[in-house]
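Students often ask why we bother predicting the structure of a whole assembly rather than each chain alone. The short answer is interfaces. A chain on its own may look different once its partners are present, and contacts between molecules only exist in the joint model. In this exercise we take two input lines together and write out one structure for the complete complex. Read the inputs first and try to guess which parts will touch.
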Amino acid sequence: MEYEAVIGLEIHSELKTKTKIFCGCETSFGAEQNTHVCPVCLGLPGVLPVVNKRVVEFAIKAGIALNCTINKFSKFDRKNYYYPDLPKNFQTSQFDLPIAEHGYVDINVDGRTKRIRVTRIHMEEDAGKLVHSGNTIKDSASSNVDYNRTGVPLIEIVSEPDMRTPEEARVYMEKVKSILEYIDVSNCKMEEGNLRADVNVSLRPEGTEKLGTKAEMKNINSFKMAENALEYEIDRQREILEDGGHIVQETRTWDDNKGMTLSMRTKEQAQDYRYMPEPDLVPIITTDEQIEVLKQSLPMLPDARKTKLMEEHGLSAYDAGIITNSRAMAEYFDDIICDGADVKLAANWLMGDLSKQLHAENKDIQNSPVSAKYLGKMIKLVEKGVISSKIAKEVFGEMWKTGAEPEAIVKEKGLVQITDTAAIEKIVDTVIADNPKPVADYKGGNVKSIGFLVGQVMKASKGKANPGTVNTLLKTKLV
Amino acid sequence: MELYKKSAHDLHDLLEKKEVTAVELADAFLERIDSIDSKLHAYITKTADTAMEAAKKADKKIAAEGKIPFLTGIPGAVKDNICTLGIRTTCASKMLDNFVPPYNAAVMDKIQKENAVILGKTNMDEFAMGGSTENSAFFPTHNPHNAEYVPGGSSGGSAAAVAGGLAAWALGSDTGGSIRQPASFCGIVGLKPTYGRVSRYGLVAYASSLDQIGPLTKDVTDCANILNVITGYDEKDSTSVKASSPDYTKSLIQDVKGLRIGIPAEYFVDGMDKEVAESIHMAINDFKAMGAEIIDISLPHTKYAVAAYYLLAPAEATTNLSRYDGVSYGERVNGDDIVSMMTNTRTEKFGSEVKRRIMMGNYALSAGYYDAYYLKALKIRTLVKEDYDRAFEKVDVILTPTAPTTAFKIGSMINDPLQMYLQDACTVPLNLAGLPGISLPCGVSSSGLPIGMQIIGKPLDEEGIIKAAYTYEQSKGFYKNIAEVTE
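Now the answer. The structure tokens for the assembled complex follow.
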């Protein structure tokens, strides 16, 4: 029997507000332990939470961007469970009236567009961080708690179980990340835990509707990890089913080192969260006007931007998809071409040399040493024939190192392309004279050997000779 | 007359006329505490040193300014669930035996801005759970009128301090009657403001949607003056009301002509003391004689209020009290691992009534029971509120007993929690509806114990109940009936 996987995701994203969700403490990452704390986020007796309005705005923006309905009457609830990283031993979250519901995200897999429904988006507070003396809380002589993260605002984006393959799940995660970055509500730095996912998966015989028993995997914090964990889990469940066994509903954890999922707790051991309306906070009332203002404040989203690049600039779906995947990249691209640089060349430089270099040095495009404006100027120098594509690489390298203007580099280093046919002819003649063997080969019918000769001319001209002219001249002279 | 017997407004006048100094006042009250508190046990923590400092500061202010705010230099007491910066705040629980808040409750800031003199933190039922102050983890407080009797609760320490002359005024908190019932038992005035009138910031939560801070005073004039100090919108309390606070002393006028007073039959419950019922009926007649219109009303869902309260309040309490786990503050009892540490801490440091309510609350919220208990109780809460809404279409205020009985003997009900809960029958419905209510003395029983009546107002109409209470108080004068406690 063939089985089909049914996958749903709960994505937790930290919001990039300056202060925490219920107090005025800073949210910035990497501060000294327990310095971003106050009586409210420490859950001391008698203190009260006050909702950070920006958190609500950011959540609504996310709701709009993920095509949700914004609930005009929304409230917070207490989710009760004991854990030492949670100072109140309840998490202030949202239960039955989340801020946004009934949305969707369109993803592209294998050239096909698929709609993944978003069940809901709710707001909640993050927990603190435990630092154990051993590996886990159970085998440690002592554990310390860092409360800096306690109360950092989160949104949880819950999808319908609409994904069927690990790849779809990964692409969905990437798409959600991309949208959250575009609307500037989250830093989405996975290495800092800004974005984490709980992944649900079950199997059912292909062609049937009834959902199988699911397993949940907690705290997946990279796309690759999500894909690997799902692949492993689907295989594990398939083997059990093929052997005639039953899947146990449980929470599992992905061990990235071992490359396998391990059972954490079964349904019987599951927590009863005893949700209760948060009595210290009043309901959140949102008006149509507020929603409209936030809607107007949103930038063009990745899908719209991609379409624009394809329709207005004739880029391929593939190129447009890559460029618009991140807002920073899309904006960089716009800045390259805004003064008239060739669109195709711009795309190639952006996706090629620049991306490679950024990746090699682990830099964000926002911190690129080569500005988009200068890259645009450099591309125009190539278009005008002032420099060859080969020289352009050298100019780019210099721009990367010094951040200087391309014209200045070209001038200073004397890299202007030699287009003067007489000057090139001189070099061509010398090369023909110095290389009788390849010349003979070419004349004898080995057309490939002209490549060697072109290379020698370029070398002799220090790369400045116009390659087109060199080719033409060689061919003329070797007839 | 000894200074400790005087009302806060009398003391205020003496200070302003410079007939007495704040230091002399503080001395008089501290002396009174020294001689009497070993008998009453009204205080958990006495703050003589900081009180004297504050008194000296107040005297400087009086010398410099002449005209002073109401509470300047006036010695008072604060219930021990209201956080006081740098002063131990225990909630009468072993759990918080060592807890010193690094912040003030919003009301403390307001009070200290006036240079009031705080004598100490008063005893209470642990985490405000109880109606007798016997649930204090430290010791019970005794009723100043008869030391064999409870002072009521949970603000029993505050009520006993004011009634016994151990403080000129006090703050309490009221979740189901915890200001009004002890005021009634101790023969003083206690007011629970409309939910949201007074900031709850810094009040250690028992049941957040029901808790309110309010004054316990010798008379209605003091009550109005202190309400002026503590009310007002607070951005740190999202549930605080944005409405501006009136000057409540403007309601200190004798005028009940044409006032429509509702008398709900449901509040004269089975098992009510005959003497209590008689006193209330006499008070009703007094109001009638003064020109008020007496109207019989019905609040049909009253009988479900206690049951609903004892689901909702414990449900909120169970989550509010989850934070006491020994991890980062308060007491800790070690264990082999984190779970046993938390379990040992909560097992040893919570008292039995607190544990009972935690269990009831968890039961009411747990999967499969939520709809039957918690949700149903919420519906009753709405019905109780609607009862009042309908009644207030016909009447201006509602008059009831504060409690079905006078104070009872220490130990007489401690093993019968259900009987104890029924003590709250007349006070709990106001908390469910968020309404203001005042308790004031209206008689004395044959055994010499005070009897209190409750006047309930419309939402945010503290003025209405203060005016009615003041009119009655001025004509009947029960407030002069201060207990005489001797060593």
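Check your guess against this: The interface with chain A takes residues 81-83, 89, 91, 96, 99, 101-103, 105, 200-205, 207-209, 235-239, 315-316, 318-319, 322-323, 325, 327-329, 337-338, 342, 362, 365-367, 370, 374 of chain B (CB under 8 Å).
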